[in-house]
Amino acid sequence: MSSPIAKLSKNILDRLLVRVHQAGSHRHRVGILGDELCALIHERDVPVRRGLDIGCGDMSMTRALQQKLMDSLWHGVDLYPLPDKLRDDSAWKGYSRFDGQSLPFPDAHFDVALLCDVLHHADESVRTALFAEALRVAGLILVKDHFEYGLYSRTMLRAMDLLGNYGYGVSVPDHYFTPDTFRQLVCRAGGSIISLRVGLRLYEHLGPLKYLLRPTWHFLAVIEKDASVSWSGARPEETRRV
Fold first, then answer.
1. Are 133 and 52 in contact (CB under 8 A)?
2. Three-state SS annotation for 66-112
């Protein structure tokens, strides 16, 4: 998720991009994804007392999930130090900084962990370790991310990422997951894909633009730890079909 504390000093272009993104996409997206993520949790029939939002950005999704799952307590982590002026702001309650790879929590401390449009921004050299850490600290992992299918989808996804992240100082990736590369990541980290849903209608409110932006570029995955394998180089012989 986009983080307003990633780049504290913003120029005119940054502020314009942030304003356009907030008005045209961000709030709408948080509402839809919050409902979809809660539905996935309810489908698994998993009691959620503690949840972790990894790469929480502005914590809007963290707060949305806590409001929708009223008996749960959610914590958010991201790469950026919290400015002094925000330390007493209730909107940032439950936020802490981490190094982007190691999560400072005990094993199985959370019932659910979320990686929402985070993995494609993580450097490929740390993705597996980060995912393995998520599996270590939570019993269930929810992932929202992108699939690319060629030059057109990759170009349009990069354009959307530019609009949604450039103003916040967050880098735009050169490419995105394919179904195969995502499965390989989960497998390397020692996870098993329980369900994979491709196709989210996040653009219906954008008028003619919705015809250029495809639902199949977005996916939601539910992942659990595979007890038969660890992430450090070992891989299971086969993954569960979804």
1. no
2. HHHCCCCEEEEEECCCCCHHHCCCHHHCCEEECCCCCCCCCCCCEEE
User: Could you give phi then psi for residue 50, rounded to 5 degrees?
Assistant: -130, 130
Residue 240 identity: R
For residue 221, what are the β-bridge partners? 143, 196
* Structure confidence at residue 240 (pLDDT): 32
What values do phi and psi take at 137, rounded to 5?
A: -95, -10
What does the alpha-carbon distance between residue 219 and residue 197 come to, in Å, rounded to a whole number?
A: 6
Q: Is the pLDDT assigned to residue 2 strictly greater than 50?
A: yes
* Inside any domain, residue 214: yes
CATH of the domain at 115: 3.40.50.150
Length of the chain counted residue by residue: 242
- Residues of the domain holding 44: 12-225
Residue 4 lies in a domain: no
pTM of the complete model? 0.87
State the Cα–Cα distance between residues 219 and 27, nearest whole angstrom: 19
Helix H or strand E segment including 163:
helix 151-165
